Amino acid sequence: GAVVSQHPSRVICKSGTSVKIECRSLDFQATTMFWYRQFPKQSLMLMATSNEGSKATYEQGVEKDKFLINHASLTLSTLTVTSAHPEDSSFYICSASDGRDTEAFFGQGTRLTVV
Amino acid sequence: GQNIDQPTEMTATEGAIVQINCTYQTSGFNGLFWYQQHAGEAPTFLSYNVLDGLEEKGRFSSFLSRSKGYSYLLLKELQMKDSASYLCAVRDSNYQLIWGAGTKLIIKP
């Protein structure tokens, strides 16, 4: 299957700082990328959907000014958690789709811990 | 609203067979997915059903009934490494994945 690379896999940051997470599709053009958050023992929660070259669509309750998403190219999307707080600590996962009727491919996930 | 239900936890014995059920109510239907997720890792794709019937892939099979809004994942010849969470997801009319809460499967020797 297609490969989606997410980096970093783990990050620890201080409260008030910003953290950038990258999601790259290595062998296909990702017209759409999805960002999820997953708290322990809970299911995946969609945060936002981004299409290349346009603004991301955020789910209800997700602060667009806090979770900045950029999808500047067909192979790269970034999620920046700004002014991170301990409650932002979570597992963040991206997935990418080439827009056809196929599965979405997942990155490896990023474990964010805000101290 | 959109809703996907699956059992929270199941226990089975190594070598046995287990069936994990999933029922859904979504705005539109463009396919149902099953994913496996080990703790701390991203989900990995297991199966995809868009038409009614059974899809078999090795030890894993997945069944879909669109009229009943129902699917199941069947795991045969269970191995200890099958201990994981199994996520049911439906792609809705907007082509977004709606996720179930996941079923934690515990395999005992």
Description:
The complex is a heterodimer of chains A (about 120) and B (about 110). With about 120 residues, chain A is mostly beta strands. Helix content of chain A is about 0%, strand content about 50%. In chain A, β7 and β8 (about 75-80) form a beta hairpin. The chains are: A mainly beta (about 120), B mainly beta (about 110). The interface of A and B includes residues 43, 45, 46, 105 and 109 of A.
Describe the secondary structure blueprint for this structure.
The complex is a heterodimer of chains A (115) and B (109).
Chain A (H helix, E strand, L loop, with lengths): L3 E4 L2 E4 L5 E7 L6 E7 L6 E7 L5 E2 L8 E7 L2 E6 L8 E8 L7 E2 L3 E5 L1
Parallel strand pairs in A: 2-11
Antiparallel strand pairs in A: 1-3, 3-8, 4-5, 4-9, 5-6, 7-8, 9-10, 9-11
Chain B lengths: L2 E3 L3 E5 L4 E8 L6 E6 L6 E6 L3 E5 L2 E6 L4 E6 L8 E8 L5 E3 L3 E6 L1
Parallel strand pairs in B: 2-11
Antiparallel strand pairs in B: 1-3, 3-8, 4-5, 4-9, 6-7, 7-8, 9-10, 9-11
In a few lines, what is going on in this structure?
The complex is a heterodimer of chains A (115) and B (109). Chain A is mainly β and 115 residues long. Chain A has no helices and eleven strands.
Give descriptors for this structure.
heterodimer; A: 115 residues; mainly beta; 7-stranded mixed sheet; 4-stranded antiparallel sheet; B: 109 residues; 5-stranded antiparallel sheet; 11 strands
